Every structure is written in C-alpha cells, then in structure tokens.
Amino acid sequence: MRIYRGLEEFRKLDNAVVTTGTFDGVHIGHRKILRRLTEVAQKNQGESVLLTFFPHPRMVLQPDSDLRLINTIEEKIKLLEKEGIDHLIIHPFTKDFSRNTSLEFVRDILVNQVGTRRLVIGYDHHFGRNREGSFEHLREFGPLYGFEVEEISVEEVDEVNVSSTKIRRALEGGQVEVAANYLGHRFELSGRVVHGHKVGRELGFPTANIDITNRYKLIPGNGIYAVKVEYKDDLYDGMLNIGHRPTLSSVIDVATIEVNIFDFDQDIYGEELTIHFVKRVRDEKKFDGRDALIEEMKKDENKVKLILK
Fold first, then answer.
1. For all residues of the chain together, what is the average pLDDT?
2. Out of 25, 115, 200, 274, which could bridge 190 as a Cys pair, Cβ 3.0 to 4.6 Å?
C-alpha cells in the first residue's frame, strides 16, 4: 500500500477504483466497503484508492464538539494495510477544503486529480459543502465525467449494524467487548511510560504510568480492565486502571492510565506500550482506606487472571 500525505503527492491514475470517507475505527462495516473496493479493482484491472482525511472533518468544523477518535492516524494506516488497498491518500481537511461543492469535489478531486473510473461508497454517504452530495448526485455526475458508481446496499449495512459513533459510545461507557465486536479486533491504546507517584508500588501493585501523546485519541471510561500489554512485539497479561484513584485522592488529583503488568520486571521508563483492552472488571469506586483498596485490588487481580486465562 502506497501512502500519500495529501492529494498533491498523488499522481492521477488511468483506472482508479475509489472510495472515500473518514473510516475512523476501520470497523467491520468499513471492511465490507474495502473488500468490495478491492474486488471491483481486481475485476476491472484497476487500482484501488482510499481517499480519507485528517483531521476528522468534525474536529475542524465543530471544534467545540471535543470529538475523540477511535484511531490515531498511525493506527488507521496499520489497519488499512491489512485490507489490500493499493493507494491510501490522507488529505489535510481544512475549512477551505470543506467549501468544495459536491460538483467540485467530484470533478476536480475524484476525477481530475485521482482519475476515478469506478466509485464504491457506503449506504447514505454524503460529501461536499454542507454534506450536500449524495448517491443521487453521483449517479448524475457519473455519465458526465466518465465513472461508474456502486453503493453498498442498506441490507448489507443493516446486517452489520455498526458505526463509528456506536463504537465511541461503547468505549466511553467502558464496554470494550462490545467495541471489539463492532471493530472486529480489540481496541488499542498506545503511549509512553512516564514517572508517576509510585503509589502502586507502595500498595504491592507496581504500575507503568502511560502518557497518551495523541490528545485526540479516545480513552475508555474509568475503571479496572483486563488487558494484554504489547511491548517490543511481545504480549503480557495485565490489569489496567483508568481514573482518579478516589481512595488516594489526596495523592492523585488528575486522571491517570496505569497498568500492572503480570510477571514482568523490566525498566521501561520512556518506552512505548500498546494496550489491548479485553474486558472491564469493575467501575472506579472509593474504598475506606488503603487496606480495603489493597484487598479489592487482590480480588481484581484474580478476576483479571481468570479472564485472560
């Protein structure tokens, strides 16, 4: 898969088979579209192209929405590489770009810059200024500009019944298993290990405190989770906490992400970890002192080990 960080890097193709959209999460619905995209490209001796955008349009047009994304752009690329696409264009989304009418988007970008001969889109896809463009517009534009358009049917969409919005809501509620079913894989979170308050070590559960460098990345709801921890291509079992540690509120006054990696004793400060979420064990709650907290953490550990076993 060749990657282009903007349309200006892309050289127009003779027979481009194209889809376009944000594809946040690259979930099972998205993969239906991508599978069809590659099928049509192979059948017609064309080259498959995905035109996507970053930042997410809502982050530009609705900056107060505080939208958090399922994937960082690096995670999205990694997932899309598995789908057999020939070309991935990640075009910067700006307010100026958003002013393209549906006609300008089709004529100037899809046809004149990309070379679209066939277009595969999801059901109820909209594009162009104020999302004015629709499948009906594409059917009108096709004969004028020399391309065919295919829409993934409503039946196929309803069959998977998934959307990026549904996945975000599930993750915000801590429902990582639901999110995994929609995604077709476990939700991931990557970050660098930083120094914390060392409170976990004092409690008998040493933790790696994780700093998430991508501020637009969605963080699941507070609580205790059973997780797999990826470090240098190896996977370890672990117990992760997201939240304020209310029992220790006098010590920790900001939300933290910290993971206790089982059977692990390495110095990993400054290193990158990837967390694969398996299941939430319980909500965050306040206990009557450290002894009660330690007792509960021992129970949590046993539950997590059973889940991961």
1. 90
2. 274
